[in-house]
Amino acid sequence: MTQGKRLRDALSEEKPLQVVGTVNALSAMMAKRAGFRAIYLSGAGVSNASLGVPDLGIITLSDVATDARRITDAVDLPLLVDIDTGFGAEFSIARTIRTLEKDGAAGVQIEDQEAQKRCGHRPNKKVVPAGEMCARIRAAVDARKDPDFMIIARTDAFAPEGLDGALARACMYVEAGADAIFPDALTGLEQYKAFTEAVPVPVLANITEFGMTPLFTLEELRMAGVSIALYPLSAFRAMNRAAGEVYRVIREQGTQKSLIDTMQTREELYELLDYYRYEELVDKLIEGGYGKNKRVQK
């Protein structure tokens, strides 16, 4: 079974499907341990965590593919990948799809902002003409080998064009081949309901903290007909706050003793990583005389 099929199966079995952001392999393993059926690699997460830069269209396909591959190597959960505007024109978008499908992703999210994009919850966003976004979608759809690999079209048009403009775009994007619609930075449940009634494909709600969208509950989203509830950076933000506090206390107090109860223990980490199984394998290799019959090169 392909990862795209796994993602579509999860969508049909869990309504709305909760998808959580994972910035690296270990956080993906923790998400799986918590019982999530699908995970997400955010462009902002790659920008912030891997490169230490703002989410302003700075990352490349190589940056995203590296993080995606590390995550898919670590867990078998379907991974949805944020590819911003696709990393170029149509041929480059096709290459992006082929690369990420080969690296084990289950689908991508591509948006209709201009190439010099902004965070979806910041002002002054500019979107490309709808026809240009449709070309992006068609390039992505045509490039995939697995028909179940999901192409999710994100529209940032609600802010500059209003609800009617964003709805019109969503319908065009579905016609172009989008498997789901991601209207970003909506402010009310009635707006989500307008999208779910307008398009015949799943609608994604981006429930990101400190943005334009209220933190709607799963039941509220279900009543509005939303199919995917995305939490792109929730764990990452919590990790950052915790790490910042650890650094501050160690620097100010000269010891981490007061923080021990807030930390993941060595045993908890080892259990998550299956450390002892690896250690046993090492011991067997050593006890078995690994390499003792290896021919000496002269």
Describe this structure in words.
The chain is an alpha/beta fold. The protein has helices spanning 3-13, 25-34, 43-51, 61-74, 90-102, 130-143, 158-176, 189-198, 218-223, 234-253, 266-273, 275-287; strands at residues 17-21, 38-41, 79-82, 107-111, 150-155, 180-183, 204-206, 228-231. An 8-stranded parallel β-sheet has the order 6-5-4-3-2-1-8-7. Helix 6 packs across helix 7. Residues 291-298 have low confidence and may be disordered.
Spatial order of the strands in the main sheet? Answer: 6-5-4-3-2-1-8-7
**Span from first to last CA?**
48 Å
**Oligomer kind:** single chain
Helical residue percent? Answer: 40-55%
Rg, Cα atoms, Å: 22 Å
Q: What structural class results from the helix and strand content?
A: alpha/beta
Beta fraction = 5-15%
Poorly predicted runs: 291-298
Based on DSSP secondary structure assignment, what is the total number of beta strands?
Answer: 8
Offer a few descriptive terms.
298 residues, alpha/beta, 8-stranded parallel sheet, disordered C terminus
